[in-house]
Amino acid sequence: MTSRKNTSNLSNLYVPEPEFRPGDLPDYSNINLNKEKWPDRPDPLVDAYETEPHATGLVRALKLNGETYGQWDPKLSPDTLRQALRHMLLTRVVDKRMFAMQRQGKLSFYMKSIGEEAIAVATAMALEDTDMVFPSYRQQGILMTRGWPVVDLMNQCLSNKADKLQGKAIPICYSVRDKGFYSISGNLGTQMIQAVGWAMACAYKGTNEVASAFTGEGATAEGDFHYALNFASTYRAPVIINVVNNQWAISTFQGIAAGQSRSFASRGLGFGLASLRVDGNDFLAVYAAVKWASERARNGGGATVIEHFTYRQEGHSTSDDPSAYRAKGEAEAWPFGDPIDRLKEHLIKLGEWDQEQQDALIVELKAHVRESYKKAEAMGTLASPTEINPATMFEQVFEEMPTHLRRQRQELGI
Amino acid sequence: MAEAMKQMNMIQAINSALDIKMSQDPDVLVFGEDVGYFGGVFRCTAGLQEKHGLHRCFDTPIAEGGIIGVAVGMAAYGLRPVAEIQFADYIYPGYDQIASEAARLRYRSNGEFTAPLTIRTPVGGGIHGGQTHSQSPEALFTHIAGLKTIIPSNPYDAKGLLIKAIEDNDPVLFLEPKRLYNGPFSGDPHMPARNWSKHELGEVPEGHYTIDFEKARLHREGADLTILCYGTMVWVAEAAVEATGVDADIVDLRSLMPLDLDAIVKSVNKTGRCLVLHEATRTSGFGAELIAEVQQHCFYALETPIVRVTGWDTPYPHALEWEYFPGLERVSEAITRIMED
User: Fold this and answer.
1) Residue B37 resides in a domain
2) Structure ipTM
3) B105 vs A183: CB contact, 8 Å cut-off?
4) Helices (H), A111-161
């Protein structure tokens, strides 16, 4: 195991660095999955401090060989598992298509979620469709699972005339209220405390809904994350606070946000919140953890912090080249595998799936995505002149347009 | 039917507005630091928890970003939260949630999610509060697209405008000039303090009424000078007009965003002279915006340069408060100078 220097010989200031940088050979032999603590599943209304082993260990249900293990296996039907595989694959196929189209100049920007599909899809499947999610920018799998048409996603990314946001937001900043998908801000972390407010509103109105908020591990350093934990704890808000720890915040490794703490999940314990650290590449474990947390929230147990331990397989966005700061081969060496491959292996092990079916499904999804893209492209792309009426720029600033905006619109000549 | 009237100070008027909206609309919630059991450090929420319940009026952690963040989430859900920030000087941790979130949620979601929240916060000086209890940060907020910024100068307006703010479907920042809570202020600390008990603007309907935004109030009608002002400076202007004997329009803007430009233009075109007042620091202050509009729309009517009297570009000092504050003396001098020009 190599260890990079964390101080210079000019100063005692400690600045953490990741284990591997370009030129290093990634080596994760220190992570021995057989020796990791796999904590049992407690009662969802357990005292928050009883989840200490879960916050620092790793909740898992699926071994790398496709077999299940322990109390967290949600024992889903083969049909449900096949649905999950379909949603995850669709997400990946869409991501690849949009990435390619960005490279062709058809949209300004895109963000893939490759390697993180289990987190979004399992969340959507474990929650009720009426539970509002407050996403960050790698949870498009929730939209796939909740049945938002792919063409609508593409229209938004292309800012074309069929984009229901009328080109007001950059690509991937979706807003889909009827699919329980809160407007993505683009400012990191702000949604966490808003989700707590939403959950407080649910409690106030006496509904049985929960809210579910997502942040990457990097943005847990924002004040909004800490506000969220504090308010969620104080008012016992029915909210799930998800930290997707994919190891990298653009070029910044997770240790810059984590400091000396043992896990991101353990941040919750200090606020008296139940906290789970989950293998984010294990669909079954994520599903079980979200079910556990939602059951806790719906029964008055308050919020849960879930750290999804995963790996960002690709660049941060289409504007990013991770080879400038990550060691080559790191994604391949990552010891927790790929979430889609792992669920596929599980289904095959159950005798409920085979490679032929997998291949056929991919062909079907690719055809669907290709067709959807054709429809979207016909409505315009960034490469074609915009057909959005310029007058709409002044709309939705306020409910009713005040005089000064009316005058500015006239100044623009419309 | 004659409306039942009651003499109120601005604190009571604000309390009455909150009480009425909480009674009328179960979706109205009031929260902030010390607002619950205690009723707020300025007593604006006194009695609301006892009357409407712990779940309707409650204390929050000391986290302005958290207070405004949960208010955005509640408002997006469909509630009408009224958040109190104890002093405007403490609002900055919540600035991102106001500027990037509350103000832009409607736009970025093209109307799918909205943030009908009201943020109440005391502003302004004259209370020996020093740099952490005296600031007037309105210009930092009027610069934000998607946010309305309101500042009343008297109990009658405070109640009608606050009810309007709570009923508005967009986020409203409601600035309360704390020096006016108990009475008008001439800008001269040596003059005897006045209270609202005998003032006609302290006569407030007991029931529900609203005052529209984007409507200035002509506080005093005159012929020779237009004074554009808001909040505490309305009363300083009134005292300075009395002291100098100049026949001036005093335009109480009340609604900074959206702004009643027509009222401003009408007055300056009539008088040909314009004085702009605010407590806030000068550079990039709201006065700069007013002056730009006046020169563009009233250029040919102006007989003299537009003058502004403001706080200096320093942090708000403690010991030298009356050298900092644009009080009666400085405003009177400016009026005299303009009229001699």
Assistant:
1) yes
2) 0.97
3) yes
4) 117-126, 140-145, 150-158
